[in-house]
Amino acid sequence: MRDVGDKIETLRSATAVSVVTMAAETARRLQANDVPKKDILPIAKAAAVMAAKKTQELIPYCHPLPIDVVDVTLDVGTDRVTIHCTVTAIWKTGVEMEALTASSIAALTIYDMLKPIDKNMEIVSTKLLAKTGGKTDWVEKLPANFKAAVIVTSDGTAVGKRVDNSGKIIKERLESLGVREVAYLILPDEKEQIRQALLDYCVQGVQLILTTGGTGLGPRDVTVEATKGVIEREMPAVVQAFQAYGLKRTPYAMLSRGLAGVREGTVIVNLPGSSNGAREGMNALFPYLLHVYKMMKGGGH
Known about the structure:
alpha/beta; 11 helices; elongated
């Protein structure tokens, strides 16, 4: 199975359709419930719901997921039954296979129960009509001439006693998102130096500044305090997002502080100093955070 542990949970939905063709007389009798096996339509609907919940048992690489809704409609036409199945879940992976499985099993159920009176029935189509909530829904276009900066705050790293990993992780992730210009700076845990570096980058027109380190409760952890003196508007939910993501992976995430906010056109976010914390923060925030630039220009969601 594919590892989806790094993904965030989002609202996912998928709709699939299956079509069963039959003789016109068969469709008429089905509609009138004048068939040897009674109540075919409600049984097919129940079969679709059961199938959606069993998808991970039928298809080897499908992940188990908490389904919230399975909505099934069956439309009996003059010579066919059209089955629409919509599945919804808040999870890390899509639900298209659940929708396809549900519609397929409903079609097979109808076929099975009508085969005594119609030997020429055919399941002519099963296809996905729509899906939402996947990564293609969250693609954000970078503003023109986008500049970013990564500031590593660590006394040990600044004097060469420690090798930086978290800053490099952040920088590489930004570059993978298409950010071509990423400044990289290592500073000691000195509040005034950090504050001045943040201000300098803002003046230079850097649109995104990510710091790593100095978010704990140690006596030299002052990055949050330095940032507080720079930002004009806070974005508390940004911090909540990566802290919630981290708490699902380690209880120590509750001991990390952080601040996120905006100064004019610059977004500033404090990320943890550990490699895992930085990686998890990037997984939780990107590319979704990039939507803020559209909002700052007056655009909506």
